[in-house]
Amino acid sequence: MSSVPKTMKAARLTRHTVPVPEYGDNDLLLKVGAAGFCHTDYQVYEGVYQSKLPLTPSHEPKVGQRVGMLNLKHACNSCGGCRNYREGDPPNMRFCENKEMAGVQHDGGFAEYVVADAGSSSLLPDGLSSEQAAPMMCAGVIGVIEKDLPVAVIGVGGLGQRPSKGRDLAQEVGPENLRADKVINYNNKDATEQVIKFGGDAGGVAGVCVPLGLPPDGFKFGAIDLVFKERVIRGSLVATKPLTDEMFKLVDKHGVRSHLTTIGFKDVPKLPEVYMNEHLKCRLVLKM
Ligand SMILES: [Zn+2]
Ligand SMILES: [Zn+2]
């Protein structure tokens, strides 16, 4: 019997009716209008974060009455992370060691109601639909650049979409929809030179690389370029509320919209499978 594994897959009948979440002084109880399915949700499903299951997924909800929430809430305001924010930034909850993360360790937005923290929720522009706003609360806001500098984005699609398909997606979506000044095929031998040339002064020296994936084996960087060109490798975790407010101003001004597929509540169990389908070319959003 030694070949019999300790665990197995099994189908279980279950009915998920859970209590409406309790909320505190600085919380908002939101009725969910739409919520996105992110790569993080797929990783939760796969057990990457060892989340306690069952758990309500999604940290990208957008609510009927003009509010979107980030997936960070309930900072303790006393730990090292809370005290150690960058100079010039308002205190923010991103680095709190005791914060809650919707859909990762705590229930998220695939539900009728979700609790949001007023400190990480933003009002939405009028012309933006619930479905469009949902993925902007994670993938969208992560991509907001604070300064007017040339930017090279490796891969295409909402952050969290499968980057290996990025080139096909870029061709299909078309440069005019991406609104990029230049599209470079990274399989070209001179792709790096093209990027550096396009970036001008900022391309070659002292550039900042912001890797956002979470590969289990980490990243590898060339030491010579790092030291001799003073290049910077910088992490980035979601966003602050002020940056989110800033993003919505830009979204409103430039009419930024994403490629989406909306699904209904009854199709939620199929999401991990649909998400991993190689033909998927858009962000998946649950519309309540
Ligand atoms: Zn996300
Ligand atoms: Zn804290």
What's the count of strands?
11
Strand content: 5-15%
Number of distinct helices: 10
Q: What small ligands are held by the chains?
A: zinc ion
Give unreliable regions as ranges: none
Mean pLDDT: 82
What share of the residues lie within helices? Answer: 25-40%
List the helices and strands and how they pair.
Blueprint: E1 27-37, H1 39-46, E2 60-63, E3 67-69, E4 72-73, H2 80-83, E5 100-101, E6 113-117, E7 121-123, H3 130-142, H4 166-173, H5 175-178, H6 191-199, H7 201-204, E8 208-209, H8 223-228, E9 232-233, H9 241-254, E10 260-263, H10 271-276, E11 283-287
Parallel strand pairs: 8-9, 10-11
Antiparallel strand pairs: 1-2, 1-6, 1-11, 2-3, 3-7, 4-5
Can you describe this structure in just a few lines?
This is GroES-like protein. The protein has 288 residues and is an alpha+beta fold.
Features:
binds zinc ion, Quinone Oxidoreductase, Chain A, domain 1, alpha+beta, two-stranded antiparallel ribbon, about 15% strand, 2 domains, about 290 residues, seven-stranded mixed beta sheet, about 25% helix, 10 helices
Folded structure, characterized:
The protein has 288 residues and is α+β, with helices and mostly antiparallel strands. It has 2 domains: 27-143 and 239-287, Quinone Oxidoreductase, Chain A, domain 1 (Alpha-Beta Complex), CATH 3.90.180.10; 163-233, no CATH class. It has helices at 39-46, 80-83, 130-142, 166-173, 175-178, 191-199, 201-204, 223-228, 241-254, 271-276; strands at residues 27-37, 60-63, 67-69, 72-73, 100-101, 113-117, 121-123, 208-209, 232-233, 260-263, 283-287. The strands form 3 sheets. Strands 1, 2, 3, 6, 7, 10 and 11 form a 7-stranded mixed sheet that branches. A two-stranded antiparallel ribbon has the order 4-5. It has a two-stranded parallel sheet with strand order 8-9. Helix 10 (271-276) links the parallel strand 10 and strand 11 (283-287). It is globular. The termini are far apart. The mean pLDDT is 82. The site of one zinc ion has 9 residues, from helix 2.
